[in-house]
Amino acid sequence: MTHPAGHTAATRDQSNALGLTILCLARHRSLDHLTLSVPALAGVLLVPVAFNVAEWMLRDHISGIWAGVMRFWIDKLGIDGVVIEQLTRVAWFDFNLPYTNVVAPVPDVLTWSVTLIATLAVCLMALRIRDQYLPLRYFLLFAVFIEATALLFFAVAPQSFPYTASRYVDNGVKTCASLLFLLPWAHALVYYIFDFSWPKKIFLTLLTLVFVMIAVPMQLALHVYLMVSCSLLMMPLLSFVFGPTMLVFGCIALYGWAMSWERVECSAL
């Protein structure tokens, strides 16, 4: 084996054990060029279109499932609210989506005080997290910052909060409906271009869409319960930290798993 310059017999074995020789000789992947055959390029463009067409044809069924799941949980959780389906504009298109008519209260003094104590406790806990878990510390501090701004707003002008629980859920449904149509194109840009077999590519997109379709009504029903139980003080935290962000994290996790799947030869694309 050829070794990098500067290696001596004394350090060569240790270098091989650490893989430093391979790292030194390996060609960095950023120097490689991505090449797609004409059939592969056609698939990258046509498969997302096929998914979007299927989603459009199933839009009423998806809306019905979402409305049914949210209606079920609102009833089981004893929440005073109604879920209906109504024609909604998303981007340039109009189609039926669930609308939840529910009221969440403004926080009273006790709720505000308890939330303040809980926020301070999380902040202190986050500051004590070891550097080994630095991403978790940053995530918790971001959540603390969002909740701190909510506490400040409701301490100064609680009656001026511009959003209602119904509007929050309606915006969440619209956002997630748009996400369903954008996901196939995101996979086309970041997954279809790699040398995986087409059944695996299609399976990843199908699996991710099913995940989003199942998670959305469950997540929104939970958000409604938390806002009704803990007041509108929870809305900013749910929106910025535990809303679409969690869905995106789930999609990224599935994508990361899919990137570990066995690849095929480029000629097989």
Can you write the helix and strand succession as a string? HHHHEEHHHHHH
Main beta sheet, described? 2 strands, antiparallel
Low-confidence stretches: none
Number of helices: 10
Global mean pLDDT: 86
Q: Quick one: overall form?
A: globular
Oligomer: single chain
Q: Which structural class best describes the helix and strand composition?
A: mainly alpha
Distance between the termini: 33 Å
Tally of strands:
2
Q: Output the strand order for the largest sheet.
A: 1-2
What's the number of domains? 2
Explain this structure.
The chain contains ten helices and two strands, in the order H-H-H-H-E-E-H-H-H-H-H-H. The chain is mainly alpha-helical and 269 residues long. The protein folds into two domains: 37-86 and 93-106 and 162-269, no CATH class; 107-160. Strand 1 (81-90) and strand 2 form a beta hairpin. Helix 8 (198-230) runs antiparallel to helix 10 (244-258). It is globular and about 65 Å long.
Write the layout of secondary structure elements.
Layout (H helix, E strand, L loop, with lengths): L8 H10 L1 H6 L12 H20 L1 H18 L4 E10 L2 E10 L6 H19 L6 H23 L8 H26 L7 H33 L4 H6 L3 H15 L11
Brief characterization of the structure:
This protein has ten helices and two strands; from the N terminus they run ααααββαααααα. The chain is mostly helical. Helix 3 (38-57) packs antiparallel against helix 7 and helix 4 packs parallel to helix 8 (198-230).
Keywords:
269 residues; mainly alpha; two-stranded antiparallel sheet; globular
